[in-house]
Amino acid sequence: MKELELKYGCNPNQKPSKIYMKDGELPIEVLNGKPGYINFLDAFNGWQLVKELKKATGLPAATSFKHVSPAGAAVGLPLDEVGRRIYWVDDMGDLSSLACAYARARGADRMSSFGDFIALSDICDADTARIIKREVSDGIIAPGYEPEALEMLRAKKKGNYAVIQIDPDYVPTPIETKDVYGMTFEQGRNELVIDDALFANVVTANKEIPQQAKIDLAIAMITLKYTQSNSVCYVKDGQAIGIGAGQQSRIHCTRLAGNKADNWFLRQNPKVLNLPFKEKIGRADRDNTIDVYMSDDYMDVLADGIWENFFTEKPDVLTKEEKRAWLDQMTDVALGSDAFFPFGDNVERAHRSGVKYIAQPGGSIRDDNVIETCNKYHMAMCFTGIRLFHH
Length: 391
Known about the structure:
The protein is an alpha/beta fold. It has three domains: 3-166, AICAR transformylase, duplication domain (Cytidine Deaminase, domain 2), CATH 3.40.140; 175-266 and 327-383, Cytidine Deaminase, domain 2 (3-Layer(aba) Sandwich); 275-317, Helix Hairpins, CATH 1.10.287. It has 14 helices and 15 strands. A six-stranded mixed beta sheet has the order 3-8-7-6-4-5. Helix 3 (97-107) runs parallel beside helix 5 (126-133), helix 5 (126-133) packs parallel to helix 6 (147-154) and helix 8 (250-266) runs parallel beside helix 13 (345-351). It is globular, with a radius of gyration of 21 Å. It starts with a strand and ends in an 8-residue tail after the last strand.
């Protein structure tokens, strides 16, 4: 198949629309549904991300994409009891490594992952399909599907769930083009290999970056490679826990990603874990209620006459002081930035979310201030010398 006609482009008024190969055949097969223009953008960016994560770590990888940026990305490390609970998989028994990867990727920012497009590095197995089956999602791309998994996925969305199979051996041409306003842009593909060598130039007084932190930094940088810029990514224990994408200001990226990382950790607080939800509350409504409960607008779900819609009894408020005390326990977080930090305020914000390891290109006229701020908190920061803008 050399080309595939699509219903429309980014919006319904943008017709005609198709994807096609200038030379050769498309390296994909649509096994179910009718993926759209944005679905394919998410699918191809997501596939590149998980393929690189698998190559860098040797572990199965998954990502949850929305609007051409990842909401979450993770590798297949086992889930502990708390992780199983906050990702809503505690009733599913033992899970495969790939299923753990997707549970982590989906669970990092469940609000943003609602209606996601999924990419998997490995053949989709039944465990992973069982998780996907009960989540709101638009589609999936993977190098293959076990028969039982494919059967489950084909039944989603009344049979309209988009299922794409990609040739794992496909290698794109080294030059890519993009048309904007009738003019063609051309550039070499970003083929940068992200490995330990990228983190060798440690510029802070603390030179200690353990191997797990290097893995987390690699996950951060690979995730940023396929995130709309400006972007910052917080990672802990093999998964992105906060991604700030598409912000014009670097500090806004850092704050947005840090707030998401904080919410990820606050979900593990006993008060949140033990919220007395009514049995018939759906998981999307639970996610939204939890998000509001943890925010400054908690009375929107705790006011008399309202809490009764969600809970069997009125929960206690999670106070500002309790939240800060809980967040102070979050440590050893890794942070990657797709471009240099222009001011030390980014480090100050990162510190409040437990960041200890930072990778960024360096090259700001205020590098000394940024390094000094890292030294104040005994952080280890490396200069990669590489910018990772993606548009």
